[in-house]
Every structure is written in structure tokens, then in C-alpha cells.
Write a structure and sequence with these properties.
Radius of gyration: 17 Å
Shape: flat
Mean pLDDT: 81
Low-confidence stretches: none
Helix content: over 70%
Order of helices and strands: HHH
Number of helices: 3
Structural class: mainly alpha
Length: 98
């Protein structure tokens, strides 16, 4: 008899896969971004690495926050918005907008 995967198990494995890919991509991109530090290419690579890390941590963090009370859900969304704004302003600064 074959094992059947539940929807929750499939979701957990997807989250783990996203986290692994995000960690791997970020590590590689941070190294190459360091080689191009100060240039527009380095800024773009840095943004891609930060987005990959965001994807890798946002899903597990959301699953965790979802199991807590409303205050922690609000804290999660505020932290997520601050992270995204930080990434955005970092790119704008790298392109000389600020």
C-alpha cells in the first residue's frame, strides 16, 4: 500500500523547498553582488538576494503567526512591510534616487 501525502505535508515540503532555494540563491547572489559592489548590477543582485530571503522566510513566518493571536499577525504584517520598504529604499539609494 502506497503512502498518501496530506495537503498539510505537501504544503510543509513546499515551504521547506522555498526556504532552501532562497538560502542557496541568496548565498550565491550575495557573493556575486559583493564582486559588483557599488555598481547598479551589484544593487540589482542585492535586491534579488533580499527578495529570495523574503520568500524563504515569509511563508514559514506567516504559518507561525497565523497560529497566534491577532496582535502577532499585525506585528508580522508590519515587519513584512518594513522589510519590503527597506529593500525598495535600498535599491533606490543604489540607483542614486535618494
Amino acid at each position: 500500500m502506497a503512502k498518501q501525502r496530506t495537503e498539510a505535508a505537501a504544503k510543509r515540503s513546499l515551504v521547506k523547498l522555498c526556504a532552501f532555494i532562497a538560502l542557496f540563491l541568496s548565498a550565491v547572489i550575495f557573493v556575486f553582488g559583493g564582486l559588483f559592489a557599488g555598481s547598479k548590477a551589484g544593487t540589482i543582485l542585492d535586491l534579488i538576494a533580499k527578495i529570495a530571503l523574503l520568500i524563504g522566510i515569509a511563508f514559514p513566518a506567516y504559518d507561525y503567526a497565523r497560529s497566534l493571536n491577532k496582535t502577532w499577525k499585525i506585528i508580522y504584517w508590519i515587519a513584512l512591510v518594513i522589510y519590503i520598504l527597506g529593500c525598495t529604499f535600498g535599491v533606490l539609494k543604489g540607483f542614486g534616487v535618494f
